Amino acid sequence: MMQAALALVGQVFGVAEPLRFGVVGGSEGERKEHEVRLAQLREAVDTALSQKPAAKRLLVQFASHHIQQSLVKSLDVSRLVVLGLDSNDTDTAGIDAALFQERERACQSFTACVTRHIQSLQSAFANHRAVADEAMETALLRVQAGLSLLFPVSTYKDLQAVHVHILWETEKEGGSGSDDEDEDDDDEREGGDAVSKALRSVPTPTLNAYLQAVHALLAACRLDAVITLPVLKAVAITVINRKVQQRCAEEYEDEMLPDLLAWHDAVIQPFFAAFAPPSATNNTAHVQREMRLEVYKALGTLRVAELFDIIIEYPSSLPAIRDIKKWCVALLKRLLHPGPQTSDIINQYISTVKTLRTLDPSGVLLELVCSPVREYLKRRPDTVRCIVELLIAEDADDFDGGRVGGDGAAEDWLPDPIDAYLDQNESLRKDSVLDLLTSIYGSKELLVEEYAHMLAENMLQCKGFDIDEEIRTTEVLRARFGEEYLRKCAVMIKDFANSRRLHTAFERAPPYESSPPYQFSSRSDSPLHWPFTAENVRVFVLSRLFWPGLKTDNLDLPKDLETHLQYYMQKFKGQTQMQTLEFRPTMGTVDLTVELETRTLELRVPPVAAAALLKFEEQSRWDLDDLAAALNAPPAIVMDGLRALMGHGVVVQVSRGVFEVDESGSLQQGAKM
């Protein structure tokens, strides 16, 4: 049966098949014969794979081999899409409508070949879609190799030249650049005047049809993302730069940016809509923003080159200055958007500081440029973590002594100019990279304060008393900043060591009498309970004056846990006579094993989430205000706990302010989040 299946694969996809896949149509008899063989192949494949699953690999290799043979036979790369446009060749007599129509038909034929192969393979392996996908993917990889080798060298330039021509024609039809002067400028277009003149003889609909056929071929061969989109971007940037240069050079008395953006929306945006590959449909908004930014970039680059003339022409050049201001705002937005990694922004910040310190030792430019970046980094939640990672990196030994200005910085020193900022960030004026990092927060004290918050959060989230990583990090920072700056962090680490000692003593103490563990009443066959024992409950004793961000919100804990904590408080008084304990019930974490009807979950949640989950055993649905009253906690704190449970799929919001346990997981789709 396996040999029969392989033979049918060869008959259906082989190059000797009477119905050529590269030819659309075929006689009625050939099509019927092809359908019969597909049905036979489908049956043979089903039988072969059911009797011998290991045959999957052999079938994939055999099918992909025959598909590749047929595709390669249909693919005449030398005449498929290459136009032979050469800006250095003055003989362009062959560039006419007939050439583009011939290439269009070749592209359509091969696209039909690829499409029919995919359809035939999916039909033959209808019950084994994974096998079909793998076979087609293997065959296309070979075809892609041939096409991708060709496109970057010559066809890429051909497509770009045709696209640029169409964009220029579109711009003319829109009423821009139709006079004789622009006609003369057309002869100087990038890509060669001979090619430009030859393309003018080809009707625009013919060029459009050719481009659509090429892009359909690239999409069929899954090359659209790596060829089509880069081509479109390169074309758009070329045309944008030309437009800005033609329209705005040495023109200072009018604001050009509004007209340029309107032109972008009328010409560039429809261009992308017409030719963008299917793989880019979900990324259209990003591409449009990127191209609008290119308009700002082209105008800004031009105006910076003309800045001296703009200053000379003031105040008549004030509109051009407004354009520069808008460009600066757009540039700042590009840098300070959520996309880039925080570590990348910090590295660029350090490079910027070094560069501007070299250009302007006084620091006037430095303060103007770096202030917005610092403010943005302060708002990022992971900035402290990234700075700490840089400070504790093994290759960061030069942070304390690295000189921003180089060996000759002292000899090149100049006094501050009279326009230097009196309140300038002092860290920016120092030489070490450590000072540059601390300049983000303004001083070492503020940076260490932020680190203390991060350290507290990490320590309270840890399981048990294992904080070796936090200890190592704090020791490295103490060596870099000095012991006086890390005194608070040292107390926090000492608190954990004392908590470990108290926990060990508490474990060795005689057990206390308590009520039976809390048990859920609704599931007696598989009871869940809270084992409040010294082994499973760990209490962190924190020094109130040294730990930042200690919460004082109220929360009613389960009765057994309250009893356990009261017993711990008595033991603590016996250990330390001069101190008292005040429990903060909303801080810390709880490890849970939650058994639902269809799944069992291992969770780590805040105490308020665990307390709320207990209340859901009393009734299946709760209103937020009622649940907050039952827990004797603020609604905002209870909502934080519910969000944690919703994140794990345990609880869903069924209506505004109403929550319910999702036992089966079926409520997730209909929940109103």
From TrEMBL:
Xref: InterPro entries: ANAPC2, Cullin-like_AB, Cullin_homology, Cullin_homology_sf, TPR_ANAPC2
GO molecular function: ubiquitin protein ligase binding
Domain Cullin family profile as annotated: residue spans: 436-646
SMART domains associated with the record: CULLIN (SM00182)
SUPFAM superfamilies xrefs: Cullin homology domain
TM helices/strands, residue ranges: none
Protein name: Cullin family profile domain-containing protein
UniProt xrefs under Pfam families: Cullin_AB, TPR_ANAPC2
Residue ranges, annotated region (Disordered): 172-198
GO biological process, one term: protein K11-linked ubiquitination
GO CC entries: anaphase-promoting complex
Similarity comment: family membership: Belongs to the cullin family.
Acidic residues composition bias: residue spans: 178-190
Species of provenance: Salpingoeca rosetta (strain ATCC 50818 / BSB-021)
